[in-house]
Amino acid sequence: MFNPLLALSKWKDDYVQKNAYFQIHSLFVILSLWSDWMEVFIERCAGLDVHSETIVACVLIGSKDDELIKETETFPTLTKDLFRLLKWLEDHDVTHIAMESTGVYWKPVFNILEDFFDITLANAQRIKTY
């Protein structure tokens, strides 16, 4: 059986990808707790690492039978670039996004994306415990 968390472990040495790993891992944990009576698997999800001037987006695409595909892209935080991020995520058919609620930088990103995706906004301190 395909395990996205094991597949992600090979990228954990890089800081940005490590943050995306924690964000996506927390999304899997939350969804698993929410529906503990069934197996939850998200075939197209993303983790966003939001900073004051950049957003690093990591998209993971995979199914139980396929190899995991990972794409990472960096976007500036201007409004026009947030809409570019939205289009990039839509082009990858992302359904779920995990992001940290650190500081205030997440708010404009969340406001633009919330109508299009199922977003898990996670407390950064709790993500790090997983």
Automatic annotation (TrEMBL):
Q: Which InterPro entries match?
A: Transp_IS110-like_N
Transposase IS110-like N-terminal domain location is 46-127
GO MF: DNA binding; transposase activity
The record's Gene Ontology biological-process terms are: DNA transposition
Where are the bilayer-spanning segments?
Answer: none
Quote any Pfam family the record assigns.
DEDD_Tnp_IS110
Protein name stated in the entry: Transposase IS110-like N-terminal domain-containing protein
Native source organism of the sequence? Bacillus smithii 7_3_47FAA
